[in-house]
Amino acid sequence: MNKDELRHAWESFAEKNDFMLNPDSGHVGMIMDGLLANERDFGLKLCPCRLRDGSRKRDLELLCPCNFKTHDTWKKEGRCWCGLFVRRG
Ligand code: SF4
To answer: Angle CA(20)–CA(64)–CA(59) in degrees, nearest 5?
Structure first.
């Protein structure tokens, strides 16, 4: 998947939701680079901001987009842990 395809997939994911892709394109670009490096190294689109422990269970938790509405950062600050997705409005 190239960067344009990834951005499109993220935008589609956020469409019609109460969150959107972070309007800070530089920040999104950094996350994108980290995620694509993880895909290259581990074969999975893993969150670039959180640590793996090598277990399958943890890798499944780290697949991006994750279930970020369970995170404290969503409840307190309206964003996923990495700030890739932010609350609308
Ligand atoms: S915290 Fe954000 S960047 Fe990390 S996996 Fe979840 S949605 Fe993706």
So the answer is: 155
Rounded CA gap, 50 and 8, in Å? 23
CATH number at residue 29: 3.90.460.10
When divided into structural domains, the chain yields a total of 1
pLDDT in tens, 9-41: 999 999 999 999 999 999 999 999 999 999 999
Nearest CA to ligand 1 atom 1: 81
Ligand 1 proximal residues by C-beta, below 6 Å: 31, 47, 49, 64-66, 68, 80-82, 84-85
Domain limits at 64? 3-87
* pTM check: above 0.85: yes
Give me ligand 1 centre to Cα 44, in Å: 13
